[in-house]
Amino acid sequence: ENLLAIEIYPYYGKAYFNIGAIFHTWGRIDEAIEKYEIALALKPDIVEARNNLGYAYYTKGRFPEALKEYRTALGIKPSHVKTRINLGYLYRDTGMLDEAIGEYRTALRYAPDYADAHRLIGEAFIIKKDPSSAIETLFRAVDLAPGSAEAHNGLGKAFEMSGEHVRAALEYETALSLDPLLLEAAEGLRRTRFKP
Asked: What pTM was computed for the model?
């Protein structure tokens, strides 16, 4: 369907974006980048293409290019939550934790019940060694998404960091009941199960 659209109308940017997204899903990142770039050359204001191109650059370790695409996308549409989250990941992975938290919080202004944003803030507080802030935020994530193994695992890490090993073990157990392959939760449970 997208190839047909390109045959009929070769300057249809959205079709190139869709093909890029398919390549991206298949893990063919270089081909995805190529199609996103064509889409944006034809129609520079496709926010989703900017976000996806930024994410493709991010996965290739091309952080300055990813940052440029994310900022451009947010210049077009500041309320694009997915871009805010992706920019937060980029900041987190480059050690800019306060900036990451800021992006996640901005995402929450547009989508207050977005559990993953709460979880990511909590995880950033764990990295910052601030378990009390992490616990508060991760409780909200668990309230919004009780079936999130990652949120329960994060809460387990925060409780463990604060020395509350029984509560940590309970959260790790919950995480494992939701995702038995979550190795980090299994290791956390092993560390905390028999500690007072």
From this structure: 0.86
Q: Which two tokens stand for residue 27?
A: 């893990």
CB atoms inside a 10 Å sphere around CB 78: 12
Tell whether the torsion through CA atoms of 7, 8, 13 and 17 is positive or negative.
negative
**Higher local confidence (pLDDT), 196 or 69:** 69
Q: Residue type for 63, please?
A: F
CA dist 185 and 193 (Å) reads 11
Integer angstrom CA distances of residue 131 from 151, 164, 192: 14, 11, 16
Decide if 157 contacts 142 (C-beta within 8 A): no
- CA–CA separation, 55 and 36 (whole Å): 11
Compute the distance between CA of residue 67 and CA of residue 90 in angstroms, rounded to an integer.
Answer: 8
Convert the pLDDT of each residue in 27-68 to its tens digit: 999 999 999 999 999 999 999 999 999 999 999 999 999 999
